[in-house]
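thread: overnight batch results

M.L. [08:02]
morning all. the overnight job finished for the chain we discussed friday. pasting input first so we're all looking at the same thing
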Amino acid sequence: MKKMLLVIAAVLSLSAISMNVALAAPSPAVDTKIGVINLQSLLGQLPQMKSINEKMKTQFASRQADIKKAQDEFKKSADDYKKNVAVMSEKDKNAAQDKLIKKEQEVQKMQMDFQRDFVEEQNKQVNTLLEKIKTVVADVAKKENLGLVLIDASVAYVDKKMDVTDAVLNALKEKS
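M.L. [08:03]
and the structure it wrote out:
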């Protein structure tokens, strides 16, 4: 019985010692410096983002004009149909309706193709820029001894002292 009490006392003592050691040990998170960037603000200020927007407008301007022209033609055809439907024969009405439906489908296809191609190209351009930003963020983090850099949109509160957006922006402008 005495042996059992000694074993229990020894186990409790070891447990207490290990808890004290664990509580006294510094936490890695306490020593880690954290930085935060405002990605939306950063993208809005970057000349590279403005360049992407201008390039996209130029690249897709002719297709956008073609869609506008097709929409105008469809609207004119629909207005003409509405104006003349009362005096058309049943055969002419059906033919005109089929023609309008076909034209509307063509315009919709043009719009969907345009939208898909525009978004695809925009994503490609922005992802390339984001990779550059990621590299620069890593450089700034190393320079400022940051162990973690977060995007402020995913954080509930940030002390302004932790914001490294300007440092990243300046470094990106220097690389341009």
